[in-house]
Amino acid sequence: MSPARLLLLLLLPLLSSFLLRPASAVLCHPEDKEVLLRIKSALNNPYLLASWNPDTDCCYWYCLKCDRKTHRVISLFFLASDLPGQFPSAISDLTYLQDLTLHKLSNFSGPIPESLTKLKYLNFLRLDWLNLTGPIPSFLGQLKNLTYLNLSFNKFTGGIPTSLSTIPGLGYVGLDRNQLTGKIPACLANLKGNNLYLILSHNGLSGELPATFAGVNFGRLDLSRNMLQGDASLLFGRSKSTSIVDISRNQFEFDLSKVEFNESLTSLDMNHNKIYGSIPKAMAGLELQFLNVSYNRLCGEIPVGGRLQSFDASVYIHNRCLCGAPLPSCK
């Protein structure tokens, strides 16, 4: 037998297996492929999507991921590009999508389309560093499987929609660096996600904190650089497990000496408020990695011990009469 014939006999089973393999085991779902090509066309066939060739298996295209078993598109991500245009409504036809990330698309604009509510399996929604405008739509509350929502670094206006509190597993809410106004809705205390992160910094939010926040165990809470006022001591408590709190650059006014802190607190930023009283001695027992209480109305000696003397004077300056290391000695 010739070497060529022998090679053919050895390869025949392999070729047969490949030729007889069901199309569904090789190719992505044809409906998803059609939708993806519509998205590409809506964005004027950008270079970012050059791999989206209709003659190839779309599960191998860049910027997306298919489920290994069903071959449906479950993840779509456009990152750091000058991708032009508005939010393509066709994205909403990728009905098995679980993860949608549009990040740092400097020429991306417009509102979030209501058709997004068709994505019933969506659990991760990141639309940040874009130029999205209008109010944060209340229809986002229909995305009941969301666990992560990041709409930061946009141009959203208006208030925070109360509908977000109806999403049962939502654990990360990032609405920072927008142009949001009004009060923080009390119903956000109903968020039940694990290790809850609520990031609302760099907006124009005003009024007092909801009393309901006294019962919330945030993992991380950032309310910095707003126009919030009143008593923020309700955020703290010995029984809580919060690790990071930033309420800096607001108009909060309360007696710090009466506040009880939880032992898990590692980062506390309160600078530029109207907080008065003294620093509680119990703070010396905290394993703080970051602290800033500058530009307030605090008085008295800085407690000795723990990490309080490991910070430089800048974290204590511009108070009414704080003294003791690392500030000058008390008189």
TrEMBL record:
<feature type="domain" description="Leucine-rich repeat-containing N-terminal plant-type">
    <location>
        <begin position="29"/>
        <end position="67"/>
    </location>
</feature>
<dbReference type="Pfam" id="PF00560">
    <property type="entry name" value="LRR_1"/>
</dbReference>
<comment type="similarity">
    <text>Belongs to the polygalacturonase-inhibiting protein family.</text>
</comment>
<dbReference type="InterPro" id="IPR013210">
    <property type="entry name" value="LRR_N_plant-typ"/>
</dbReference>
<keyword id="KW-0433">Leucine-rich repeat</keyword>
<dbReference type="InterPro" id="IPR032675">
    <property type="entry name" value="LRR_dom_sf"/>
</dbReference>
<feature type="signal peptide">
    <location>
        <begin position="1"/>
        <end position="25"/>
    </location>
</feature>
<keyword id="KW-0732">Signal</keyword>
<keyword id="KW-0677">Repeat</keyword>
<dbReference type="InterPro" id="IPR001611">
    <property type="entry name" value="Leu-rich_rpt"/>
</dbReference>
<dbReference type="Pfam" id="PF08263">
    <property type="entry name" value="LRRNT_2"/>
</dbReference>
<protein>
    <submittedName>
        <fullName>Polygalacturonase inhibitor-like</fullName>
    </submittedName>
</protein>
<dbReference type="InterPro" id="IPR051848">
    <property type="entry name" value="PGIP"/>
</dbReference>
